[in-house]
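Changelog entry: the Glycine--tRNA ligase record was regenerated in this release. Current contents:
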Amino acid sequence: MAKTNEDQFKNVISHAKEYGFVFQSSEIYDGLSAVYDYGQLGAELKNNIKTYWWKSMVQMHENIVGIDSAIFMHPKVWKASGHVDGFNDPMIDNKDSKKRYRADQLLEDKIERYKKDGKTNKAEELQAAMDDALQNEDLPQLKALIEQHEIACPVSGTRNWTEVRQFNLMFSTQFGAMAEGSDAVYLRPETAQGIFVNFLNVQKSGRMKIPFGIAQIGKAFRNEVIARQFIMRMREFEQMEMQFFVRPGEDGKWFEYWKAERLKWHKALGTSPEKYRFHDHVKLAHYANAATDIEFEFPFGFKEVEGIHSRTDFDLKQHEAFSGKKMQYFDNDLNEDGKPFGNYVPYVIETSIGLDRMFLLTMIQAYEEQDLSDGEKQDSRTVLHLHPCLAPIKAAILPLTKKDGLPEKAREIMDMLKFDHNLTYEEKDSIGKRYRRMDAIGTPFCITIDHQSLEDNTVTIRHRDSMEQERVAIVDLPKIIGDKVSWKNLLS
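Regenerated structure tokens:
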């Protein structure tokens, strides 16, 4: 019986826990909703995704630099950015289950069900009505749509709903003895503002010329009410963002440039092109004049992985107004009239990718259950077809037996390669079982040391995806592995 998309997703979640990629946070205390820990292999894969992004953004662009700003920021930052007054989601409560839901997500789920049931017209009709209500911030209309389409609470099964209300998503906390007294301090809901408030610091200290970008990877926090779809929607998550500062009037050109560049970054990993699509925003954020999402087809439908936004000069002008400090750039390049462009507040193009979503995308895309049965012999394997650059472990060192000097020879090879690559050493179980374990965690190479290795300094190297084996000289291993896992393969 063929597996459904839902089965596949459940299997990926189970696989992630079984092999040390992702665990429920505080699991021994029954967990914390929408919070997850990355295990020993998950941390490696996550770091490799971060490295790929950082290298492609900072190392490969002469005019982009990276920073690491603090999670805590002055309360006025969030007033200026609009988060204090406008960072809200339309929420609705079920009176029987006492559960709270995002109204737009309840409607989106209904739209997906209509599509699955072949009711395309109903889906399109509801989508248009919901978009209109969100555009006009018509909360009563959102509730009317929920009632009209008979949407029930997933927990209680009843349709006993409250009115739709706006709910601020920021976590607030106390910060020592603050001079501001009553002002709350927030955990940042995004990393972008740390870049904007450092715009002049970076520009002046780095002698940066427009156009230039500032990149950052960091934690952000949102009080998401709906915990679902594993690590898709979490309260503590990580973002990889880049703000690209351009001349006013050139924002359209750079918006199109970064749309194309970012899609190329995703496709370089070997993901099927048809799995990606652009989705233009119907309702633009208060700071944007253009916005699109790069969406990936997860087992539960197309969902946003990365956003590209043309933020105009909103952020820098807001911080200029609230701080009283000028956030302008003096451009002494000459315009068409032969005069300097002079002082102006730059426009900004933002690329923002959710690291956790990218992690989930990578796991789903790589996961495969293969039937290897041959006639009467039943066999199968679960394999993660991770790009070699992203694989947590690059090679497994496997002595055929625990005796006859094979472990000692294996350790010599381990010592030779470990300075350049993350390796694992295993001598327990049959060689076949060890191969299967390495397939399951995405290790591209298995290096088997046998008795012949002691005679002629050769080993058997097994390739994960093809399962083909070849005899190679030990002295050639650094080049064989190095060529396959080199970042050049992705960045070029």
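DSSP finds 17 helices and 23 strands in the chain.
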